[in-house]
Amino acid sequence: MERHLVVIGGNAGGMSAAVRARRGDPSLPITVFERTGHISYGSCGLPYYIGDDIKEIDRLIIYTPEYMKNERNINVYTFCEVTKIDVSNKCVVVKDIKTGKVFKQHYSHLVIGTGASPIIPPIPGIENDNIFTLRNIEDGKRIKYHVISNKPKKAAVLGAGFIGLETAEALRKWGVDVYIFESFSEILPQLDRELVSVVEAELEKNSVKLFKSAEVKMFEPTGDGGIRVNTGAGSSFDVDMAVVCTGVRPNTDLAKDAGIETGIKGSIKVDKYMRTSAPGVWAAGDCCETYDIITKMPLYIPLGTTANKQGKIAGENLIGGKAVFPGVLGTQVAKVFDTFVAFTGLNESRAAEAGIETLSVKIKALDKASYYPGAKPIYIKIVMDKNTGRVLGAQLAGSEGVAKRVDVFATAITAGMTVYDLYQLDLAYAPPVAPSSDPVLIAASAGIKAMKEKNLIS
Amino acid sequence: MERHLVVIGGNAGGMSAAVRARRGDPSLPITVFERTGHISYGSCGLPYYIGDDIKEIDRLIIYTPEYMKNERNINVYTFCEVTKIDVSNKCVVVKDIKTGKVFKQHYSHLVIGTGASPIIPPIPGIENDNIFTLRNIEDGKRIKYHVISNKPKKAAVLGAGFIGLETAEALRKWGVDVYIFESFSEILPQLDRELVSVVEAELEKNSVKLFKSAEVKMFEPTGDGGIRVNTGAGSSFDVDMAVVCTGVRPNTDLAKDAGIETGIKGSIKVDKYMRTSAPGVWAAGDCCETYDIITKMPLYIPLGTTANKQGKIAGENLIGGKAVFPGVLGTQVAKVFDTFVAFTGLNESRAAEAGIETLSVKIKALDKASYYPGAKPIYIKIVMDKNTGRVLGAQLAGSEGVAKRVDVFATAITAGMTVYDLYQLDLAYAPPVAPSSDPVLIAASAGIKAMKEKNLIS
User: Fold this and answer.
1) Chains A and B: how many Cβ contacts under 8 Å?
2) How far apart, in whole angstroms, are the C-alpha atoms of residue A365 and residue A443?
3) How far apart are the CA of B258 and the nearest CA of chain A, in angstroms?
4) Which residues contact B66 (CB under 8 A, 6 or more apart)?
């Protein structure tokens, strides 16, 4: 049987697999089918494009189909949607969206990189030209075009996750009044409440109105292109546009139709080699599950960083490698105006799910020497294994100084370090970048103190 | 015999020991003798005081003798110089500098925290009112007063270590033309030449003239308060002031006179509990040696971060603890105008001294997503164990983004991670703070590639 790698989806997971396979096997025919017009773009940059930090959408495009053809000998077909995977006959059915032509493509190896799609809540009236989602290049262009040409005065953002908060910031840059509606009673549930209050204060400072426990019940057109957002109980808000940022779900219809097993949150089940349940079929990226480094439990955390890594593992293994995906800590960071928030590893509730008893500490410390101009506070919470002091997770909020300090925690957690180990670390000090005892060490010291007190009490 | 902790020297090493001992033992009498007028100040902040980033010198003072007395029940005597340690009779001889009075003080436990002093090269004419060293509060005040009142136009800085470079930056802020004279043929010998060239370019951009292989042979007063700097071979430079930043040496006269053993670079020899060779005598800080986490070889790297840690270990152990100082990686970071430079662990030459064969890689990557405004390059060099790929050291230069990334390396090195482990780390990504593949991971990837190529070749 002729060897041919087919990849469904041209973003992080799929393209990483294709590129890695090509690097290891110069002669393998590789074909990528992408249903949109773009591959390999920085979707995390979309809010900054909307906010006009980035002027041209092309800046977000990392690789083009032409580059892949000329430099990597990878055939990429855009506007080509795979409509069926036939695992028995090892072929996919493809529809060329522009011509309507349907054709079959045989594969010896298949990578599913179908990604994820925005969850559209079933709210009456949500189908409206001035209500947007934000996931791909076209979404970004549509929103920015709308903002520039229609000059909306008020906008609703549904969902206060990182994308919702970044979208709110982007709209504020155009002077739009932003109302965020979060259906849950709290935002950023991964994080400690005190840290979240730092983020909420930053929203308030920047005149973003946040409504919690505010489930949108209905969108009503108000005739002039406006939208009335109805949150029930008689409250309504008139806005000029809305952006729905209520999360994503994995694109798994193709896989499910082909009888490929799915797992957590409906994502495609994969083993540590990124193999699916079907022979010769791998998956990578936002369409498939991952697992937790610490608990080894399956997780669905769709992130570009994970997608890239999974793709590389799939690409290496499909040409005969034995690479193992080590799992994730779910490390994330986001900028919310001038406040940064980050976390890695387990919080108390995820540790509890895994049956681990925890002890947590929180500190507030300056990101630079106290006497250095512009020193700003950082809040750090460490979640420890109550019995051993092993660091399980960390949460940070405050100045930009949190952004790479979360990586120190991610490294320490991966290495299995305890707070005692953490406290001994020889970290860098200079007044413009850190106090002589770095906030990471101050947090570790608080952790040790809590472990001692616990032993004195129990 | 009455219990009494005596501490010689009121800066990082000594005060940390005193405070830790107090925390563990509320009733132990503790006396600190400090020969200057200040304890516990941020000496690393002095260049920023001189450069007027920090207006008031008092901002650098972390704790006062009054605070130590009232809040910690620690007696601190400033302007009191210990002139002799009598290890047989367990007492110190103290001279009150202000009154001239000499007295004895018995100790049951002694901590030597005498610190280090600037090395004054034996250059004819170096004794000059307009030639300064920069080590303590008084030095900082003298230099700033001189700059403000005498308005020097030109200054010489001797030595291009971190303090020399920071001093050059501080003087440039007052518009002073700065000439740095480095006697060695290269600056920052810990670092790769390509990374050093980033620092040198930054100096040039900021109109700091750097002369390498330029040993100052003589200072000649030019009559009007000016100084002629003679570097031999007929070249001379007329300046209005000079700052000598040619390193420090440990203050060990007291210890040596008492028969206490010294070790590397003449620093006080200590074991991992921070005990000296004399019973009941500990040492901590810039006066004593430390050792390398990786090679276990003794080192003399006087740093505030190390001094604080050593002091805490000494303080805990002298009241009966068994704390072990884990050694250092010698992690350092410095700001040179808008360029940051950092390193941790072993470079090739230190690894070679320890008999470790190395393999090194260098990369250049952006500190933020390529499309995000203000993304700047970072250069990273990783030094690996050639046989295992274990990360031994890292060197970084570029934007502020190097400052805490060096800590990721320090953590990974301490944990014994290889480049393979490093590459798997789940690090934080968001366009404003990192590219989707962090420079740390790009460096790890280059390391893996080099390990593979080495295996293909050898």
Assistant:
1) 206
2) 9
3) 32
4) none
**Is B80 marked active-site?**
no
Task: State the first-to-last Cα distance of chain A, in angstroms, to the nearest integer.
Answer: 66
Q: Is A415 helix (H, G, I), strand (E, B) or coil?
A: coil
**Domains of chain A, earliest start first:** 5-41+59-116+248-318 (3.50.50.60), 131-244 (3.50.50.60), 339-452 (3.30.390.30)
The residues, ordered by sequence, that sit 6+ positions from B144 with a Cβ below 8 Å of its Cβ are: B49, B50, B52, B57
Mark yes or no for CB contact B404/A400 under 8 Å: no
Work out whether the CA dihedral A66, A71, A77, A81 comes out positive or negative: negative
Q: Is A391 helix (H, G, I), strand (E, B) or coil?
A: strand
The dihedrals phi and psi of B333, each to the nearest 5 degrees, come to -140, 145
Strands A109-112 and A5-8: parallel
Relative orientation angle of helices B162-172 and B193-205, to the nearest 10 degrees: 20
**Interface predicted TM-score (ipTM) of this complex, two decimals:** 0.95
Pairing of strands A208-211, A177-181: parallel
What sections of A258-396 are H helices per DSSP?
304-318, 348-353
**Residue pLDDT, tens place only, A74-95:** 999 999 999 999 999 999 999 9
Nearest-Cα distance to chain A for B77, in Å, is: 25
Report whether A60 contacts A45 (CB < 8 A).
yes
Q: Tell me the residues of chain A between 2 and 31 that have a Cβ less than 8 Å away from chain B.
A: 12
Query: Nearest CA to B227 among B213, B209, B241?
Result: B241
pLDDT bracket for residue A458 (50, 70, 90): low
User: What pLDDT shows up at residue B458?
Assistant: 60
